[in-house]
Amino acid sequence: MFVLLDGAARVSIAMPDGEKREVAVLAAATSLGKCRDDGRPRTASVTSLHRHAAAGSYNESMELLLARNRDCLRRFSHVLAVGN
Fold first, then answer.
1. CA-based end-to-end distance of the chain
2. Which residue has the higher pLDDT, 12 or 54?
3. pTM of the model
4. Which of 1, 7, 53, 79 has the fewest CB atoms within 10 Å, i.e. the most exposed one?
5. Which residues are within 8 A (CB) of 40 and not within 5 positions of it... i.e. 6 or more apart?
6. What are 41-57's pLDDT values in tens digits?
7. Containing structural domain, residue 50
């Protein structure tokens, strides 16, 4: 899971003819990421539209990021408390 803290990102899917179709644009304070881990190919791609900050699933590197950056901690906590 990732949380888009700043900027925006485009969600697109590959069509059968190989073209990509935009299906959504995500704004800051939106969570996104892998919903399954069963080995099947991804069904969507997310591409940054602007400079952004995203925090990944909770692990040691995320703990370090949140400990060092109070603004990221505040924004991440807000997304978890309020939702998308």
1. 13
2. 12
3. 0.58
4. 1
5. none
6. 767 888 888 776 665 55
7. 2-82
